[in-house]
Amino acid sequence: MLRIAVPNKGSLSGPASAMLHEAGYKQRKESKELVLVDPDNEVEFFYLRPRDIAIYVSSGKLDIGITGRDLLLDSGANAEEILELGFARSTFRYATRPGTASGPADFHGMTIATSYEGIVAKHLADQGIDASVVHLDGAVETAIQLGVAQVIADVVETGTSLRNAGLEVVGEPILTSEAVVVRRTGAPADDPGVQRFLRRLQGVLVARSYVMMDYDCRAEHLEQAVALTPGLESPTVSPLHNEGWVAVRAMVPSKDAQRVMDDLYALGARAILTTEIHACRL
Ligand SMILES: Nc1ncnc2c1ncn2[C@@H]1O[C@H](COP(=O)(O)OP(=O)(O)OP(=O)(O)O)[C@@H](O)[C@H]1O
Ligand SMILES: O=P(O)(O)OC[C@H]1O[C@H](OP(=O)(O)OP(=O)(O)O)[C@H](O)[C@@H]1O
Ligand SMILES: [Mg+2]
Fold it and tell me: Where in this chain does the record put each Histidine biosynthesis HisG C-terminal domain (predicted)?
């Protein structure tokens, strides 16, 4: 049975469970459940603190886990990411009060507050910056107002938390993060259970980002229409009862769907429909 670590709290928890549910797995009904067996799919889920997941996976006690790239790197665990999941996207950045520093080179002798000590200590060492790091569990934006640090390094999504604290980002992003699937570094890549799990999640990612598009067009416009809707492999083209017309079916990225429909219409295509994809295996 495949043993999978799932975040039990925080920004990763809800979207991770939603994705697993969409992939056909049983998910816990209430947040106090810490272990859940899904015998039909031959998997066992362990609901763990997001920060601990890479550590469990690197120990080999669990086969794979869902966590954030930033948490994986911060842990220093012997684990590697094998699939990006597209949620909990953020950047990890330094921030200060305006005028404190114009980049990390100015941080010499300063104190930097963060919940991600591993990432920050390594970044400072790589840049040869001699600054102190103070570890805080959260709400690090307030550390500057309270005089615990002159600089913070934290997760930034919309920037609202920084703005509210009167802070601004300094220097380039240290890294960009999102939810990822991790496994122990060098674990066998061909494990059939892991492969099946990854295919299911990839299916969810594709179903979320593509729509199925159907339309009718004149045969003489087919090549131009197919150029607009090349599909993944190649579109399905079927003859219509009316001679000189064909029906075309292709997957189209959801974000492009309206523009593609406009362009197809302008080309003379009609009865242009899009439908959601609920599940898929590529
Ligand atoms: N506002 C946010 N937007 C997007 N991703 C975020 C946000 N806050 C945290 N994350 C991501 O969530 C993961 C951190 O999860 P974790 O549960 O430790 O913290 P949290 O979501 O801040 O919850 P907590 O309330 O326990 O602090 C990291 O990968 C981080 O990049
Ligand atoms: O750029 P924003 O959209 O404002 O998002 C970033 C904020 O979200 C997270 O905080 P969270 O609410 O999880 O509190 P925490 O600092 O206690 O972790 C993160 O630590 C930042 O503070
Ligand atoms: Mg947080």
Answer: 207-278
